[in-house]
Amino acid sequence: MTRFTVNNQPVEYQLDPRTPLLWALREASNLTGTKYGCGSGDCGACTVDIDGAAVRSCQVSIGSIEGTFVTTIEGLSANNDHPVQRAFLAANVVQCGYCIPGMVMAAAALLRRNRNPSEEDIAGAITNLCRCGIYPRLVEAVGRAAR
Ligand code: FES
User: The 2Fe-2S ferredoxin-type domain covers which part of the protein (predicted)?
Assistant: First the structure.
């Protein structure tokens, strides 16, 4: 059994400890806001927060995060009103939307450790891929959220 906290709720998974966190969240906890894109750590669609850091959940086994605090997009804010979420809406970032939960989680983690990121900081910290090409609006939104 693997135990940790997801969105402030204790969870116990009766799964193989090698199970990627992504699949435990999506299939065992029905937290489908965390997306599967590549499964190889490249795209960032599966980004969640673990103990304050943005992490690609497809690359993390549940057995390796015993006792940690995981936050998914569902747990980021009470009413989708995190400053990053509000800024994404205000800047019309979303196009198809598939990559957005991971982008939001990466942006929120960045702003927790850097309240005034430069464009270079944003580009360096948010390496998530987007097939719609939202990057200019992403930079604008993160700048808005920082203000
Ligand atoms: Fe995890 Fe792409 S699904 S990085």
Answer: 1-76
The verdict on residue 78 lying in a domain is no
- Domain hosting 120: range is 83-146
Q: Which atom of ligand 1 is nearest to the CA of 37?
A: 3
Query: What's the distance, Cα to Cα, between the start and end of the chain in Å?
Result: 43
Give the pair of three-digit tokens for residue 4. 């940790």
pTM: 0.96
In a shared domain, residues 102 and 57: no
The β-bridge relationship of strands 69-71 and 53-56 is unpaired
Q: How far is the CA of 20 from the centre of ligand 1 (A)?
A: 11
β partners of residue 13: 2
At 31, is the secondary structure helix, strand, or coil?
coil
Q: Are residues 14 and 66 in the same domain?
A: yes
58 lines ligand 1 (CB under 6 A): yes
Q: Could you say which of 50, 72, 94 is where a domain stops?
A: 72
Which residue among 72, 105, 121 closes a domain? 72
Note whether ipTM > 0.95 here: yes
